Amino acid sequence: MPLLEETTLPQEHPPTVPVVVIGNGPSGICLSYLLSGYKPYLDNATVHPNPILYRKLQDTKHLPITEQDLEYLSEGLEGRSKNPVAVLFDTLLHPNADFGYEFPPVLQWKRDKQQHIPHLVLGRGTPGGAWHAMEGSMLTISLGIWMELPGVNYRDMTTGKRRDVTSDRATPEEMSSYYRNYVKIKGLQKSFVDNTYVTSVQKLCRGHEGKGLENGHSDRVDGEVGGREDGFGRNKVECLKNGAGSLWEVRGYQKVQHGTHVPFSLFAENVVLATGASDSPVRLHVEGENLPFVFHSVSDLALEIGRRQLDMNSDPVLIVGAGLCAADAVLCSCSCRVRVLHVFRRGVNDPDLIFKQLPKTLYPEYHKVYNMMCSHTYTNVSPSSDYYTSFPDHCVLSFQSDMKCLLQGNNSLKAFKISMALVLIGTNPNLFFLKDQGQYLGQDPTKPISCKQNPIDIHPYTFECAKEPGLFAMGPLVGDNFVRFLKGGALGIASCLLKRLKKKGKIIPSGGNDFV
To answer: Is 31 in contact with 249 (CB distance < 8 Å)?
Structure first.
């Protein structure tokens, strides 16, 4: 949908929205579902295998999960996420999944349209986020059913029947189609604004006429807003002065026909950061990393192999990293019969290698790479003749303009002529639109936000930023890198907002439910 149905938005009177979600990937989609009046109840026809949790759920089965005490329900649960609500929601949707079982969800969904919270979900492309940019031939790490969103079965939306274990992993193409169609099936389109780029998010002062933004960038609170009502019936000045809390100003532009950029500005009572973590590749910060033959994305590999016409007789491709993206690059290179030099800092027996955590039956291709990492080391094979050579316990010292790279190992230096280099050591979020790029929101405010090393510091049961009331974060930004767990952020945020609005008398009590 267009941002406000008209491209001639009067910028001097921006609208106010209760919730703005930045990011339209699985995180933003799931949150939109919960904000649109869809509420989870215990399904009386099911029994949860955890007797303690099941007893708690039965005691309050007349209430939706969003209105219950999430801390109480999460007590004693264990799982693969550090966020307790993520573990709770996962066990309600996929009971005992970590033990290999495929029990049905213990939730049934009802829709109460009177409890819809108006919101906008802003995304750079169509709903699905970064999934649309991924290669369609690879298989996902998680099973397809673990990446489905509430209320729509993943298998029902994929062609053919998946009978063996390995085929229950999905392709990115299947998942991007699933997420895009999910928004349509659940009738969420009106809340989604595609092709939208946020350039600034700033907090307005509360109760200070003419003082403007906390950061001192503007004095437009009363000067431009002027007490006029917006499309949601809220008066901006009243929001600031009469206990409605601080407001956030969200600015950016929307790409429309012919590549035209239409600027927009709006106010939000709450902002949710759901941007994911794939914006900025982590760099080595070594000499020559900016040379034109050094790349930081798997998607560049196949393009460059074709453009440079690389084959077995070409100089090898250097791949840096020991994660799954690096493994995908190795598989792609080998399938194209291109020689590979694979460099990584860890030893092959390091227990933290991701391959050690993946069952062989589910991930045979990654275990093939791991076996090569162990058996085709530079001490066992010749890099000049073998199609693959690994360099454990090595790092890159520099890249040279003559297409050479310098590697450092244990008390040794090695130089190789290469055709291209691929540095795949992770990605970080890009929160350039926030003050100090959002660094002050991290668990360690002296370091940049990193999904693994320094996630955003949040309240564990509401996902509200510890240092910014009214600002929420979910998904990879808070350490939940798998779709299976990021749904917990949607539950925590929706529960928090519903309870607050109900306390202020802005939400009609539960009633008029329709089963969905």
So the answer is: no
Q: Is 59 helix (H, G, I), strand (E, B) or coil?
A: helix
Q: Domain spans of the chain?
A: 16-158+165-195+428-504, 283-425
Rounded to whole angstroms, how far apart are CA atoms 392 and 347? Answer: 5
How far apart, in whole angstroms, are the C-alpha atoms of residue 62 and residue 73? 15
Strand order from edge to edge, sheet including 514-515:
38-42, 107-111, 514-515
Q: Among 354, 340, 412, which Cα is nearest to 383's?
A: 340
- Please give the backbone phi and psi of residue 40, each rounded to the nearest 5 degrees, phi first: -90, 125
CA distance 264 to 254: 7
Of 280, 273, 275, give the one whose Cα is nearest residue 428: 280
DSSP state of 344: -
d(CA 67, CA 125): 33
Q: Which CATH architecture has domain 16-158+165-195+428-504?
A: 3-Layer(bba) Sandwich (3.50)
CA distance 414 to 410: 11
Binned at pLDDT 50, 70 and 90, residue 137 comes out as: low
Q: Check if CATH label 3.50.50.60 holds for domain 283-425.
A: yes
Torsions phi, psi of 158, nearest 5? -115, 145
CA 309, 311, 315, 321 dihedral sign is positive
Q: What is the pLDDT of residues 216-246, one digit of tens each?
A: 333 333 333 333 344 444 445 544 444 446 8
Residues in the chain: 516
Residue 209, token pair as written in the block: 């006429």
Q: What is the pLDDT of residues 416-456, one digit of tens each?
A: 999 999 999 988 899 999 999 999 999 999 999 998 889 99
Q: Which phi and psi (to 5°) does residue 50 adopt?
A: -90, 105
Q: How many C-beta atoms lie closer than 10 Å to residue 304's C-beta?
A: 17
H/E element holding 184?
helix 172-185
Q: Residue 280 has which token pair?
A: 């900025």
Element (H, E) at 484: helix 483-503
3-state secondary structure of 504: coil
Phi, psi of 111, deg, nearest 5: -110, 130
Query: ∠94-151-163 over CA atoms, to 5°?
Result: 60
Helices (H), 308-404: 324-335, 364-375
SS3 214: coil
